[in-house]
Amino acid sequence: MSDPIITFDHVVKEFKTRGRGANIARAVDDVSLTIDRGDIFGIIGYSGAGKSTLVRLINALERPTSGTVTVLGTDITSLSETKLRPIRQKIGMIFQQFNLFSTKTVAQNIAYPLQLDHWRKDYQDRRVNELLEFVGLSEHANKYPSQLSGGQKQRVGIARALIMNPKLIIADECISALDVSIQAQVVNLMKDIQQETGTAYLFIAHDLSMVKYISDRIGVLHL
Ligand code: ADP
């Protein structure tokens, strides 16, 4: 039985553009899609096709001009910030440039979402150790990001994305900055996570090859 995590129903997002005349840019044009539990859904599209806007609509950092976005069974189209908070916590993000704190250790970077949410320190430590082991970085717990390779930094990013037990991980160009040999390792780790936890992925890229390798289904955004 299908178990939708994300549903877009005829979603349109327009922006008013600056400059002479009242121009409107349609960043997302009538998108309907469903991502179910455990799905790996790839989205590809050239720069400017609307990929970032789609992600921002899922996080409710943008609201649709028309249509509805449903996340984990809740229509978030006009939900308040307070009600969005627990839903956002169930969405992990992995970024191209890793977005790690350079002044925090590996363990502190991974723990950060739990720390923000005031979880007990003993639970934070236990969970961080579990994830360090899972992504193969236990012996690097006390290092700083500058002491790690690109692939190791992305493993820290993955562990941090997993810490709140997300239902969906949005991977935004998350392997584009890595060497080709490391890309496959990171993608395989992501596949292992999907098999072990049932987490769904939205895998965003401008290039088809890795998306084709990892995804069950692919959506193409046209300019
Ligand atoms: P991608 O991530 O695929 O490169 P974006 O979602 O960033 O594409 O952008 C899609 C289109 O929407 C582009 O034409 C972009 O210029 C426009 N756009 C995105 N955000 C805004 C904004 N805040 N104001 C005006 N136009 C925007």
Write the layout of secondary structure elements.
Blueprint lengths: L3 E13 L7 E13 L3 E5 L6 H8 L7 E6 L2 E2 L5 H8 L2 E5 L10 H11 L4 H14 L15 H13 L5 E5 L7 H18 L2 E6 L2 H7 L2 E4 L3
Parallel strand pairs: 3-8, 3-9, 6-7, 7-8
Antiparallel strand pairs: 1-2, 1-4, 4-5
Helix pairs in contact: 3-4, 3-5, 4-5, 5-6
Bound molecules: adenosine-5'-diphosphate (ADP).
Description:
With 223 residues, the chain is an alpha/beta fold. It has seven helices and nine strands, in the order βββαββαβαααβαβαβ. It has helices at residues 51-58, 81-88, 106-116, 121-134, 150-162, 180-197, 208-214; strands at 4-16, 24-36, 40-44, 66-71, 74-75, 91-95, 168-172, 200-205, 217-220. The strands form two sheets. The chain has a five-stranded parallel beta sheet, with helices on both faces. A hairpin with a 2-residue loop joins β4 and β5. α3 crosses α4 (121-134), α3 (106-116) runs parallel beside α5 and α4 packs across α5 (150-162). The longest helix is centred in the last third of the chain and has 18 residues, at 180-197. The two termini are 34 Å apart. The site of adenosine-5'-diphosphate has 12 residues, from β2 and α1.
Main features:
223 residues; alpha/beta; four-stranded antiparallel β-sheet; globular; binds adenosine-5'-diphosphate
TL;DR?
This protein is of the alpha/beta class and 223 residues long. Helix content is 35%, strand content 26%.
